[in-house]
Amino acid sequence: xxxxxVADFRIIFERDPAARNWLEVLFCYPGFQALxxxxxxxxxxxxxxxxxxxxxSHLARFLTGVEIHPxxxxxxxxxxxxxxxxxxxxxxxxxxxxxIYQGVTLGGTGKQSGKRHPTLGENVVVGAGAKVLGNxxxxxxxxxxxxxxxxxxxxxxxxxxxxxxRIVHRSGVKVNPLEHGNLPDSEATVIRLLLDxxxxxxxxxxxxxxSRQRELETFSSNFYQSxxxxxxxxxxxxxxxxxxxxxxxxxxxx
Length: 254
Description:
41% of the residues lie in helices and 14% in strands. By secondary structure, the chain is α/β, with parallel strands linked by helices.
């Protein structure tokens, strides 16, 4: 337990540039304080001692805003940054050197018995407000984007974003726990691809219309004029990528 606490203490200086001295970390970091309570209550829980482990957990929640069930298994070097609103269930397992931000829930999906909470591998980063629910496995070196909802197993070396969580593979690339600004926007990417496809279809339609108009030139001028008016109506319905609403949604992904 002491070795785990030392690792928890040291990792804060590596991952939080605001950590200036040991006194500040010891008294002003609720995530570390919550882990301190949990390490002790977890030992009592393993000994089968009733009531007291849960009471310590409840006290830690009151003091830090972090709720960790004493039955949860947490590896060494874990950093709970800010911590407020973090909930970790009874059968949750967290690997070494995980980084968990505020508002994260490692919870269940119902009233199942047995293993009902997620298992996180080593060096996992869970962004602020993310929810990882159910008896699922999250591999090593995984990054879960802020606000994501993960309901299925996640392989190692990838990133998960969105609701529900979608996997973006990054095989062979080690997760940088402080790399906050490089998460992909999968929804904007898909919309961009769909708009590209619409543009391609519009170009094909224009070519077909041009070819059709050339054929119509051989007929009477009146018949040609009526067909041209019909085509003009169709062109008005074409989606333009430059629409302001679409540009604002895509933001910087263009």
